[in-house]
Amino acid sequence: MNIEILKRPSNSAARVTLDPGETLTAEGGSMIAMSGDMNIETRINKKEGGAKGFFKGLARKLAGEGLFLNHYTPGSSGGDVFLAPPLPGDMAVLDLAGGKKLKVQNSSFVAHTDSVNMNIKWEGFKNVFSGENMIWLEMSGEGMVIINAFGMIYPVQVDGEYVVDTGNIAAFEDSLDFKISKASKSIFSSVAGGEGLVCRFKGKGTVWCQTHADRAFGYSLTPFLKPREEK
User: Most CB contacts within 10 A, which of 56, 94, 152, 200?
Assistant: First the structure.
């Protein structure tokens, strides 16, 4: 399998070239185009069926993802799948080699190779008031994960402590601990300064940040949106 990110960083798309017998799992609605003999299997969970698979799909839905995932398998000659997220921005391919685990923001997941396991990670109440989702997508296994961002993606190597706005986190390594806190010591400064709550990472690992926050972008457009008039 070969994954190539095109048109970075403002309007990225991923071209995934699959060999016969390989399978790619992708978020529903992310496909732009594909080879004519590509087979698509749409299921809640490819590896687990029954009630367990259903509840994993339901948890994914609560995390802001789609209930169903698409699993792409090419014909005897192999084939291509082109993927892109709903919002314009960057994309990146993260490698889980060496038993690495990743936590991915719900809106940042695009696809993963068949050897990767995706689970829902509940982090308790420590990020209930962050303004972001309480549930993360945990990626484990040996393989590749494709993520997206609103804006540009850039990695930060953390060795100690690092602070990121909750809306600008795309993904981070599971080796990092984190907690949600005020941006400054004073509640007034945190609110009046426009930063609000942030995520404080501790440990050693990588955080992938996005330069823009989709939630903040939505808020900036709200004053210009007129209510729909009923006819």
Answer: 94
